[in-house]
Amino acid sequence: MARYYAGIGKDNCSKIESVALDEARNYISSGSQYAVSALIAYGRFCAVEKLNRAADMARKQELRKARKDENKESIELMHCRQRFVLLKRKDKLARKQASHLEKYDYKDPARAEEYLRCWIKDALSSSPSVLRKTAEGFLEKRQYIINWFKKKISSAMPEGINNKIKRFKRMAYGHKDIDYFKLKIHQRCGLLNPRRYPH
Fold first, then answer.
1. Cα–Cα distance for residue pair 121/130, rounded to 1 Å
2. CA 186/CA 168 separation, integer angstroms
3. Least crowded by CB within 10 Å, which of 24, 50, 73, 126?
4. Alpha carbon separation from 119 to 30, 106, 125, 142 (Å, rounded)
5. 115 vs 138: CA distance, rounded Å
6. Which whole-number Å values give the CA distances from 35 to 16, 21, 30, 115, 155, in the listed order?
7. How many CA atoms lie within 13 A of 157 on its CB side?
């Protein structure tokens, strides 16, 4: 990222209004150093993915505990069917599921910040260690998470390109010629039309 910012020059860096990043510390530090006027937002995809993973691990931990204690109410609450409520399309949700999720659909940054603050506080005092660890990370990056509500930008496109490159690399079992690999990346990601450049 530092090489990218240096490559586009100081003037162009000063014109950047917002930057969507994942949780990598070097991305955040580079953005803060070069894109000095930009609003740095922790990409929603990264935050949700991290939270989903932590929540699912915590659910499994609590489900094992509930089964050991033969707690039927907790078993039903922690059952794997419940996790798919978060993954459903809004028009496919049952009325009860939709009304439950509406409580957490924040559009106002101030309300989102208040809810995040309360969630972090609760998660830090919770028993599943995975939730505590996630809360510590969110506490450190709290402002970047809230910034997403102020400027709803996404890192989905570069994430998608990175996934295409990784998948192509696995399919080819690697490439010895780095220039050819770059050419195939451009072709695979739609940046190069092979019909226009057959050779």
1. 14
2. 11
3. 73
4. 29, 14, 10, 11
5. 12
6. 6, 12, 8, 29, 16
7. 5
Q: For residue 57, how far is the Cα from the chain centroid? A: 17
Structure confidence by residue, pLDDT tens digits, 61-88: 777 777 777 777 665 655 555 555 555 5
Q: Please say whether the beta carbons of 44 and 148 come within 8 A.
A: yes
Residue 88 or 167, more confident: 167
Summarize the confidence of residues 169-195 as an average pLDDT.
75
Burial class (CB in 10 A: 0-12, 13-18, 19+), 31: buried
The per-residue pLDDT for 99 is: 60
d(C-alpha 99, C-alpha 72), whole Å: 24
Whether the predicted model's global pTM rises above the 0.85 cut: no
Q: Three-state DSSP class for 88?
A: coil
Q: Are 139 and 118 in contact (CB under 8 A)?
A: no
